[in-house]
Amino acid sequence: DTGVSQDPRHKITKRGQNVTFRCDPISEHNRLYWYRQTLGQGPEFLTYFQNEAQLEKSRLLSDRFSAERPKGSFSTLEIQRTEQGDSAMYLCASSLDVQPQHFGDGTRLSIL
Amino acid sequence: GESVGLHLPTLSVQEGDNSIINCAYSNSASDYFIWYKQESGKGPQFIIDIRSNMDKRQGQRVTVLLNKTVKHLSLQIAATQPGDSAVYFCAENTLRGKLIFGQGTELSVKP
């Protein structure tokens, strides 16, 4: 399967802990996006990279969130000092320039 | 602000019938839209896209119609099958590439 891969698929953690998610995009795609989706809602944009450069961050991305794409390939999204409100599905997508984005199956985060 | 919204949260159809899912948008400058299908526990899956220089685009069993005058688009699924049961989102693909999603319509196909 050469689609977008996300790891882990599920993460359960206690409030206040740090978590890190990984996304491996489709190999030839230069853009990588992170979205957050809560139950019954559409995905909400968090941030995106073109190659290794982070070009845009949503106001949803508080200073507890940080994303990296150090070599322009895989990306990580870290949440520090997790809060109950961080519980959501975190989706990664990739694209070639502004072509349609292809999504992974997400990481479901549950905060106890 | 920008928003993309859906008229109906749920749609139930009989297997074999055609389905029509509607979507309204507010930004008259929007020029690129994408429909995604999302099954339970999975990420959104690309179905079809349309740019503002087109009124209609057809794929395999799906057709997207775009009415720029009233800022409305629709997704038509022909001969709906049980495997079409999912949540469908329309999304605006902005100039910067980020997607702005609507709330979604849940399609339920009755056998």
Number of beta strands of chain A: 11
Q: What summary fits the major beta sheet of chain B?
A: 6 strands, mixed
Can you summarize the main beta sheet of chain A? 7 strands, mixed
Strand content of chain A: over 45%
- Report the oligomer: heterodimer
Structural shape of chain A: globular
Query: What does the average pLDDT of chain B come to?
Result: 91
**What is the count of β-strands of chain B?**
11
Q: What is the N-to-C succession of helices and strands of chain A?
A: EEEEEEEEEEE
Q: Estimate what percentage of residues of chain B fall within beta strands.
A: over 45%
- The percent range for helix content of chain B is under 10%
Number of DSSP helices of chain B? 0
How large is the radius of gyration of chain B?
Answer: 13 Å
| Distance from first to last alpha carbon of chain A | 33 Å
Order of helices and strands of chain B: EEEEEEEEEEE
Taking pLDDT < 50 over at least 5 consecutive residues as the criterion, the unreliable ranges of chain A are: none
What integer is the average pLDDT of chain A?
A: 95
